[in-house]
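Follow-up to my post from last week.
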Amino acid sequence: MIEAAEPENSREWSDPEVHEGRLGPIFEDFAFFFSRVLVLFCPQSAVDLRSFACEAGAAGNSCIKDLSLGCVLFVVPVLTKLEVESKVREKNFRCCGAMTYFPDEVVEHIFDFLSSHRDRNNVSTVCKAWYLVEQLSRLRVFVGNCYAVRPERVMARFPGMKCLTVKGKPHFADFNLVPHDWGGDALPWIETAARCCPGLEELRLKRMVVSDESLELLARAFPNFKSLVLISCEGFSTDGLAEIATHCRGLRELDLQENEVEDHGRQWLSCFPDSCTSLVSLNFACLKGEVNTSALERLVARCQNLRCLKLNRAISIESLIKILARAPNLVELGTGSFTADHRTEAYQNLLNAFYKCNSIRNLSGFWDAAPRYLQAIYSICSSLTVLNLSYAPAIQVNDLIKMIRHCFKLQKLWVLDSIGDKGLAAVACACKELQELRVFPSDVYGTGIAAVTEEGLVAISSGCPKLNSLLYFCHQMTNAALITVAKNCPHFTRFRLCILDPVKPDPISNEPLDEGFGAIVKSCKDLKRLSLSGLLTDKVFLYIGMYASRLEMLSIAFAGESDKGMVYVLNGCKNLKKLEIRDSPFGDAALLENVGKYETMRSLWMSSCDVTQGGCKALAAKMPRLNVEVINEREESDEMVENPSDMHRVEKMYVYRTLTGPRDDAPDFVWTF
Amino acid sequence: MASYVEDTELRLGLPGSDAPASRGSKRSLPENSSAGDESCCRNDGSASAAKAQVVGWPPIGTYRKNNFQAMKVETMVVEPEASGLYVKVSMDGAPYLRKIDLKVYKGYQELKEALDSMFKCFSQGELSRKEGCNGSEYAIAYQDKDGDLMLVGDVPWEMFTSSCKRLRIMKGSEARGLEFRQ
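User reply:
Got it. Predicted complex:
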């Protein structure tokens, strides 16, 4: 029987304070408690009510503890009677269905505690009432694929949206596999937002084409605009930045990460008016051109809340010193070139400047850093949590080791492979708090002397038990090393290994690396992202399908032997969201084996595989809610391209779920079946 | 290593470049890839580019790749280019440096005159040093490829321009020390 159990302090519900939005502390606890219960009942959540109750008890919150340990189970209206009864039998709980009687404001406040998009998406599918409450109170919206849904639809559903994140091109666009004018234009999103959501405050775009026209519109259409983050975007110049600087009153954040920005002059920075004092974060490290340094110094001086400043390569040490003098409270700093012309004085001034900056926790830049200047930062190394030296090829391994020894609080380290196994051993000794390590190749063409091998990785794994995120470019890897790493670090959520020579086997046993990666997926139960490399057979995919149940993104290159490999993954990884494959022998049979799977995923990319045009057509015919796009790049010598047969192998295919049907901005080399 | 086999293989394409992937092939990477070829000269950016790499491999982001190319050019040894041979000129005691194009001058005399006029505001007298003259306050020195500080004027002009990395106008006692170090 389902009984309605009264919450302990039921008089709180009818208290007029609740309806006016001022909520007492006990209600806050209730709201939080119910939000955890919602998460528990919603699919794919990871919250354990029992552990939550223990935490609450430990924190002295006896009210919640009694509720949960006192066997009150909250029933979500969509659960069928059968499910409810089985749960009751299973857990021997008393049930209550109180939530359907809560007023909307109460439900809305409970939803406030749901921070992840996934949780909020889930509660909105429970019933119509909840859908409406959730939609009107949603502030942060995430669109993982700009072509999955129209901007109008998003903004009609979430009229109160304050923060929008949109992603455009597929990930392999980073490696030149997607033609330049494929799509991903940001303008429709900005135009629609200007019409429908003028209260927009934050916009984050990744891998999209952003024109100066878009930036101008953005600057003028949103009076409360506070934060612009552009990652791996292109299509704009410093003119667009000048518009943002000029018109966005109250701008707090301008964060440009790894964008291709055309340099139309240095004046954009001077466009920040004298009245602009609100900047908290300014990152223009990716800009190639000169910047008006005196304007920058004045800007930094008047923005007292500035905490993150990342300078570009054009900024010399002399300018850096002046800037640091005006911004001693910086938490994140990108140093600029870190080199100077007039030597001896600069070093002393730099030392003094850094001495005063006690708050710096995150350092990057060092583009042209000479070893002598590195010593100036030793005073702050011991408080650093993030250090990015991956753009500093001039730093030699011995200077690196000397510096790393001081960085015992480091949590995130990005370096070049010139650090060598020896340098990694030093990191393993010094940085016990390390959670994320990225080792990039210093020689982009992958030729030359071996820099890091499996030894460095093993050293890191044994010295840094908290390691959970890895990107590692190396010349070789062994199964034994991977098995050791899997044992030492079972907490990996991101594991990306790139052996520079594709299809390279274990150099000691000459075997494929199936067992090594198998050990990783078996041991790391929370693995969300995996990139494979080296010689791999279908077996590794069998392991992945079997063990990687939390995997969301898988990148495959030059791997596998037959269709079976891909099928193992599609049938096994129930949380898979993004699958990208290149140069692997998977064909139509694999593609068409489990077509329903693709609607549970964001996207599938396959290039230089064995999928044919016929296979793509068949997929498109079976699954009308997918866009099956084929990219046909013409080669001059090729006459067959005009009317290729169904047997014709497809070079690049991109499949994604969508509510909009074929996109209307597809260039002529993109065919949607 | 299979590298010599590849050299003798008949194929289309320029010598030194791998054959481009054919349309019908199952893999775009040849089985015996020479990606680990140690004989390849690392410093020669143009040779690496000619060696046609697999598109998008290794998977390094375009932004990072472009930055590396820019950085490699800077850290490479400066070769004399047709477009000009700029070297920095520092003068002891001057607050900033200058840059001059050595290709513009035909010989040491012209160079000294140019430096004289450039740095005249910082010095009281003539910079040009004549043989045996001990009334000058300054000596012009340069840093060569090996990093050594050399007195300007000893070697033929062409040899000088090809090995000079940096110029330094030294004053007083240090300068006289150089004079005697023959």
